[in-house]
Amino acid sequence: MRWTEEHLLADFLALIGRRRSTKRFADDPPTRSHIEALLQAAASAPDHGLLAPWRFLVLQGDSRALLGDAMAVALRTRMPEADEEALSRERGKAFRSPVLIVVSVRPVAHPKVPEIEQWVATGAAIQNLWLAAVSLGLGLAWKTGSAAYDPGVKRALGLAEEEGVVGFLHVGTPLVQSSARPVDSASRSRWL
Question: Is the pTM of this model over 0.85?
Answer without folding.
Answer: yes
